[in-house]
Every structure is written in structure tokens, then in C-alpha cells.
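Q: What does the assembled structure look like for these inputs?
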Amino acid sequence: MAALLVIEGLTKRFRGLVANSDVSFALAAGELRCIIGPNGAGKTTFISMISGHVIPTSGRILFKDRDITRLPVHVRARIGIGRKFQTPTVFDNLSVYENIELAVLATPTPRRGRHAKIMRTLDLVRLADHSGQTVGALAHGARQWLEVGILLAGEAQLLLLDEPTAGMTAEETHSTGELIRRLVRELSLSAIIIEHDINFIRDLKAPVTVLHLGRVLVEGSFAEIERNEQVRSVYLGNA
Amino acid sequence: MTAESQPARRGLFGGFRREDLAALVVFLLLAAVPLAISGYVVYILPQYMLLGVLAMSLALLWGYGGIVSFGQAAFFAIGAYAMGLAMKHLIGLPINSAYLGILIGTIGAGLVALLIGYFLFSAGVRAAYFVVATLALSIVVEQTVKSFSDITGGWNGLYVDRMTLTLGSMFELSLFDDAPIYYVVLAVVVPVYIVVAALMRGRFGKIVIGIRENEDRMTALGFNVPLYKTLVFGLSGLLAGVAGAFYATHAQFAHPVNAGVLFSTQVVIWVAIGGRHSLLGAFVGAIVVAALSNYLSSIEAIQSYWPLVMGLIFIAVIVLFRRGLAGLVESLAGKGPHGRVAGH
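A:
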């Protein structure tokens, strides 16, 4: 598989604080990857540098062989990088339908094809029955799914999902895992997921990258990570 | 779940069909006025209609874009002075000087707005800071007009002729009388409303609403937010400029007051009362409030109190009907997007 995203020696310093230090990373087209790590490991900073919300101090980010290290957020979005934020960032005062419609308007979809595309997206994230509802009144889980739908309708190829199951029930978390796996498979998307929920990560059956103190500690399958002594000591303190 | 399902296209973007009907009624009524009555009303109504266009210029900025401007008078004055100066100085050309005035005033006001919008929005200036910048713009234009009194007439204002409609050398119609200019103004106002309403209902308007609702999400979707803000501000300036150009030739003067902060504030009040989320509401709001102020200030007993009365009405509307007259009509009519955008 060709690499969709290549990151070389990425470093971000906020004044004295080193949030990311010499992180190298590669993601293949169609790949799903989990990023875990204790609080302060630099996970959100890492994702923010890919989405353009944070500009790195040094290092390079290549997306589809193009250097995007210093491109503004909206240009990255246009070439296929879609970000879901930790707190759902959706249009609370608009209807579910209108939320997806705005995402479709960001793509070159001709006027005639818009409605069908909106409905297709709503089906994918199982919100078709709520299309007329105001988003602010939706359950928390549904808002998370809506934001994923917004990324899909916006034709993102790389999904950056920052804690997509935050605040969900166990059942919602489970079906979110299924949804993400299905989307990645059926629409041949790639995704980087930051998560804390260990059951969710196990369900995803995806390779895991562990960040610690801004560096890559270890990479591997979930089983490998679960057994890894270093990872255990990082999470459990110096046991 | 299925009980919740609704026709998909309703909501903030759709559901404005009622407003089309209301607009048709308003414009038909306005068209009928000179047939029914004559005198002062026919003289003054076109000026109110143009103030209505000025109000629309703010409504599309404030109601749709969530951007408040206390600088609309500046663009209105640019239109007005461009008209006056063109009609005075650009004579003897093969083109009607009034047409040039309208063109220069409209495009000039639009360009000034684009330029200011570009610098402010690409620098990330938001909310209250933007309001202050527009406030300053009003003051700058007012002072400029006052200072260059050789050209602009300073505090005395600038006398402007009533324009004449021409079509090459084949057709000529003086708009000196009140009825012809009434219909010319109406013939300008109606298409302006239709075009702007269609624009704001289409892709552009939806994007502007999206920016009002969640700027970060729009950026993360790939929209160039500062560009769209600049465009909507430019369009707003353009509309205010058109209104100013026609206002000057109708009222037969352009005055520094038309550029001032006080006048800009009045525009904000009209739009708040009329309903900032509705172009028609803002248009009607301006006509009603302008007529009312005119009437109240002509009654001797309350002459000196009328600004106070207007102020009380303004406060009442802000407190009781946050969506203005348009919101009131909407909720009286039953349906409509209830309170959906309240609080913005």
C-alpha cells in the first residue's frame, strides 16, 4: 500500500514546553490507526499539526506526496483532511440536514446531486430519521456521529478523530467502533483515532501508536501493545 | 425515531416561501400608493424605501453573517456624494452623469467595503473590535466630507439635482416630479430585493449562515472564512452605496449627517426592530420606523421627546421580540423556524 501520510521528525515547542519531539509516522491509504498515551503525551497536538491548527516548530508533513507542513486549515480540508474535534464542533442551531448540506457545499457537487448525497451520508451515519431535527437537541452520541457524517460529506479521505466516543455509553461506543471500521473499509478511507477507551481500541483491531512525553514510545498491534512492559509502566506508573 | 422524521428541506435554509408572499404584498402595496394618494406621502416614501435598502444592507451582514456594523452610513454617504459630485462635474459626456454617479457610488462603496473587510477579516478581527472599526469608518467619512468643504459643501451639504432618465438620444424622462421618481426608485428596490434574497437563499447565503453558526467548523470543512466575510461585507457596502446614490438625487442633497455615527446607529435600530434575520423585515422596519420618527417629531407636544419614545420602542423590541417584527409576524402566523436563531 502506498503511504498516504508521511511525517518526518515533527517537533512542536510551546515556549519551554515540548509537546511533540521528533515524531516520525506513516499511514498507508486505507489504514486505520489508533493513537494512545497518557494525558499530556501530545496526542492532540500531533493531530492538530496534521489538520493545520498547530504549525510545527520543525519537521515535515507529506500528504499524498505533497508537503502540507505550513498550509492553512481550510486548504488542507479541501485536499481531503477532515478533523473531528474533541468537543463536537457542529452547527447546533441548524438541522441535521443543514449540517450535512454545508459540508456538501464545501465540495464541487453539482446542485442537482446535493440532496441525494446528503441523504446518502445521513444513511451512512444512521441519522436519516433525524434529518429535520435541530442538532442542539440531539443526544451526545448522535452529535458525534453527525460530525463524522460532516467529514464524510465533505469528502475527507483522511479522518482525524479526536476521542470520537467521549461521553458515550458502552453500547454507543461499540457501535461507533463498528461504524468507523465499516466506513474505512467500504469507502476506502484512512483514519487516525485518538482514544482512551481500551475496549474500544481492542474492538477496532487496528495498529496502535503509543505516544509518551511527546515521543513515539512504541508501535504495534493491540496484542503487542497490551503485553509491552514499557507501555504498562507508562500507564501504571513505575510498577 | 421515525416519528421525528420531517420533510428534509425545512429549517433555517428553507421555509422562506411565506416571506416571498409577504414581499409580493408589500411591493404591490407600495406600487399602489401613488395611484391612491398624492402629496407628501408620494414624495417621502421613496426615501424611506431607500433607507429600507440601507437596512437590508445591514440585515444581510448582521442577521445572516452575525457581523454587526456601525459603519453603514459611511457607505451610504459614499454613494450619495458620488452621485452629487458626478452630476455636478461629469457633465458634457456622452453618458448620463447620473448613471455615472450611480455606478461610481455603488462600485466605490462596494470597493471601500471590500478593502476594509479584507484587511480586518484576514487579520482575524472579530465581534466588538470589528464594530469599533466600523464606528471609526463612519467618523472618518463624516470628517472627510466636512473638511473638504470646497468640494463637498462641508456642513452646508451638497445640492444634488433630480436625475433624468435617458436612453441614448431616443428617450428622456425627467424625474423632477414625485410620481415618476417614485416608480423609478421602486423599480430599483424590487430587483435589488429579489437578487439579494435569492443570493442569500442559495449557496452563498447558506455559507454565510454557516460562518455565523460555527466559524471553526466552516474552516475545518475547507471554506475560506475571511474571504466569505469580506465578500458579504463588500455586498453590504454595495447595497448601502446604491441606496445612498438614489437617496441623494431624490432628497436633492447629500449631507455629512448621512455619514455619521448617529445615522449608522439608526440603521442598527431599524434592523433590530424590523428583524435582522429577514431582509423584508429590515426593509419594512426601516420604512415604519423612519415614518414614525418623522411623524412623532412633527407633533409639537412631543417634538423634543420623540428620540426618547423611539428609544423606549427599541428597548421594548429588544427585550420582548428578539427577532423583531418579522419574528413576531412569523410566530403569529404559526409556523416558521421558532426561535432557532435567537440569541445570535
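Residues 13-332 of chain B form a domain with the ABC transporter involved in vitamin B12 uptake, BtuC fold (CATH 1.10.3470).
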